[in-house]
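Appendix B, record 7
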Amino acid sequence: MPPRHLADLDLAGRRGAVAGLGEKEYRAGQLSTHYFGRLVRDPERMTDIPAAARSRLTAQLLPTLLTPVRELSCDDGRTRKTLWRLHDGSLVESVLMGYPDRVTVCVSSQAGCGMACPFCATGQAGLTRNLSTAEIVDQVVSFAGLAASGALPDCPDRLSRVVFMGMGEPLANYSRVIDAVRRLTEPAPGGLGLSARHVTVSTVGLVPAIHRLAGEDLPVTLALSLHAPDDELRDELVPVNQRWKVAEVLDAAWSYAAGTGRRVSIEYAMIKNVNDQPWRADLLGRLLAGRLAHVNLIPLNPTPGSRWDASPKPVEREFVRRLRAAGVPTTVRDTRGREIDGACGQLAAAAVSRPTGPGRGPGEMASRSERKAAQ
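Structure tokens (predicted):
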């Protein structure tokens, strides 16, 4: 795992760490205010801390966790994707999206993903490792600082939403994801001060973890990546369905909704001639009718070498019509970031440059062309 970072610790833990370095405990609050409240990482700007103490504290509690390798943008600079290299060479991607009324970051919780959904670039890459709490939080704080600098044209300068929909299955890295959510929602200097209701945690349906999440007293939005209403197809599209079937996954989602009062978002990628038939829309409508749920249809985003394609727009519109006729609130997701492979299902963290010869550095993944050739 990476070196200890301030974001790995709660305020009490930070005070103890500071005291262990021979400094006054209140320095933990000062350091936290800079990181979470002012979005400052440069020690030279922390002028309320004596220079000698500042150097020691930042070296031990604000180590560099993420190094930007490549940054891409589209939508006139309002969508930005960053490829980060971690301390061990692992690669992750996260995406910042600016809108007229909000700024959202799509954050990764794992390097790669072990869920193996065949239509998702991340899932096909496999799992490298879980991210630490601070590696997750630092993605958000980095982008919060970018937004605060005014880098997103015609958008607010304050980050307001976080979606755990980047690389990885968040509930497979449960304890660190929950700690990260607490850091993001705790008021400064303890954390970033976001509303828990503006945090979305997605899952392919890890039933025990969904039940556990319901007891955390964190009113985050649960996003369930369903993608098929019947077990036969979902076994193929979401392999974890072979362990927890549709009925059991939905029961867990309804328990979460009942316990938290939060509407569940049902994520459904529209895949041409695979899961977009009218009868599947009708079945999904029957499963969700009268429930505290909302369907978020996702036009499938292209990934190199994939045999899957997005549903035609007329088919998509009919699917929406049938769900709404069943009384199920339904929207179609904006495909922001598609041009830079930053849309849902496209994050793959291909390395920009690789060593020559047959070897590859730790955590460096094959490029998309290499993966396609290997298929």
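Remarks on this record: The first strand starts at residue 67 and ends at 74. The chain is about 35% helix and 20% strand.
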